[in-house]
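Each field is set out as follows.
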Amino acid sequence: MDERVQKYEQKMTKTLEGFETELTTIRAGRANPHILDKITVDYYGSPTPLQQVANITVPEARMIQIQPWESSLIKGIEKAILTSDLGLNPSNDGKIVRLVLPELTEERRKDLVKDVKKKGEAAKVAVRNIRRDANDAFKKLTKQDVSEDEVKDLEDAVQKLTDKFIKKIDAAVEMKSKEILTV
């Protein structure tokens, strides 16, 4: 593959990976420790990702257990979870914070699917913007003694990449939507 096209493929790959990572933070029916990925806790004055200050386990299908390495962090962890957009109420026994995930209502599942589709649309727009940037860059090549045919080939290659990544995004949206709607 032409290295001029390769850099745009890398950008599209990063967009897809970012989107897929974002999908792991959306809660489906089962407990998934990744829903806590964006949560930070005040640890000696600096916001620190929850995974770096606690052991996170899933002992049951709808429960996440958070065992901080220092019990002084429990209040901070509870506060961080309560102020997040997860909509979960943590409970603790002094050593461990437990999150019991309620069964998702039909309405909540539909809202989550809408959210997934919206995020998928945003990822597709990002991929199309990369295609536009690539095409703009290729058009400038005609001023640098690159034939129009070669520019056309480069644009076709980027279009094929765009189609491939949009299919992957659609597939990821489809898979996550099924996961959310499966009771």
About this structure: The helical segments are 3-24, 74-83, 106-141, 148-181. The chain is about 55% helix and 15% strand. The mean pLDDT is 88. The domain at 3-27+105-182 is CATH 1.10.132.20 (Topoisomerase I; Chain A, domain 4).
